[in-house]
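ingest -> validate -> predict -> emit
validate: passed (alphabet ok, no gaps, 586 aa)
predict: started
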Amino acid sequence: LSSFTCREPTRESTVRCNTFDIAESARTGPTLAQRCSFSQFFPSFWTLSCASFFASVSLFTIMVFSIDTVLEAVPQSTAAIAGALLFTFFLAVLGRPAKRESTQMAAKGLGEPKRRTKAPAMPEGEYEVIIVGAGCAGASLAASLGRQKKRVLVVERDLSEQDRIVGELLQPGGYKRLKDLQLDKCVEGIDAPSVYGYVLFNDKDECEIEYPPDEDGSKLAGRSFHNGRFIQNLRKEVRQHESVDLVEGTVLRLVDDGSPEQRVVGVEYRLADGSTKTAKAHLTIACDGIFSKFRRTLSTPDVKVTSYFVGIVLRDCDLPCPNRGHVILARPSPVLFYPISSTEVRALVSCPGKLPSSTDGSLNKYLLDDICPQLPEKLRKSFRDAIANGDVKSMPSQKLNPQPLVRPGALLLGDAFNMRHPLTGGGMTVALSDVVVMRDLFELVDDLSDKDTVQLLIQNFYTLRGPAAATINILADALFGVFSKDGGEEMREACFEYLKKGGVFAAGPIGFLSGISPKPYFLIFHFFSVAVFGVLRILLPFPTPGRIRKALNLFLAAVHIIRPLLYAERESSILVRALSFVLGRP
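emit:
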């Protein structure tokens, strides 16, 4: 039984979709819950049962033979990963997950795709859709709706090019969705290097991980760039569509119809000249970013500042491995490097706890004395020069779990709705994935004046976005937990050595990170495989009381990291909900 809670300003109700309603399925076809949740995760239920059995047998065998002389002829690393390897093998071979159906097939109650040849005539000041914000999510959605001949108003506070330290790395999954939206030309002509994978550095070793090949065998790549240049290209695409009006102004408030349900029917906004206007629409979408002013109106937000990150631009810097993201497992938190042009490299330094002051020089001292000595030798000079030149900016790293407040006539999109740690660079991938879902749903709706149809569209969106968003959300915050002080040295080393094994051990995690494999249940499997791998590294060749205590602490640290993440994403799938129930509420 899968369910989701729909909260409204005046009441709270729970809508439940029975996935075993055979009569309803025979009459109307598979339900939304059947298509979105059950068909994706049911095959893996029996698979996980079989795999768990074989994994348990293999791990028990390893522990028994670890005290025998046979182990002396076998590398300990092979024995330590054998259980996880067998688990992976049976999980992959016995029960591949069902192929995910398209958004349009999964959507319930919205009919067949419609193709318009021209936009409808509407009175001045009235639109089908109003989009607040023209960033990555807002501009790409506006361009997609313009291609569908929808009448759209986009209100952006500042249409000039911005210099930001976020939204600079587009993972391959996000780039594929950009192509799907026919917007991939927006990364051309802005000096946007291709990124083919990651290199991890610890105290004494390094590990290179390539993105997995595409379905046709071609090499996958992400793109990195100056965010402002990319957004300006997206806005140029928006202006190409006659049915879309892009204006510079500040949205002051959402306008409702005065009914008890407070249905949103438009916005009131102020133009640059100080005049105020009111526009009406059948659906209003708020994409106003990290510091959204409408978040509390359209969701039940619990924004948490998990850390701060400092952005530094290194000029004329040669990365140790060109066209790769570089993750330095520094202490107390990781440092990320990636190219943003042919001559510039972005460094993101994560600062847990309170951010040192930049006014009294504490921040620069922290970067130079604590962080710089932990970097690869090749990066230190450029790092010091960038700090001396003052190319340093900081922002809070915020976490926001998706908790929609289903208010008729409006919804949230992008960072206004959902945020995760920037370590994996997954923000734009999630945003573009959401835009693809919205684009497909809008193709099924020709008449947006039907209130019930609009409400169905909103509910379908919140359900269908789940697996892809949950995978990236869990991964980003779990990796930060593992690589920061919360995970501990043993967990950090276990993760590094696990990825260093390559093959199935690296292919799964890099598939999640790239946005190509939106499968939260496989992500959870790999996370606990790392924990088991770390436990075996400690216990083998012979468990002692001290080793057992250390292994237990490692596993408890892993549970401590993953439990709140699973609870936050419990609505994304049946398996995540079940595991969240087993581990308990944080």
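The longest helix spans residues 32-65.
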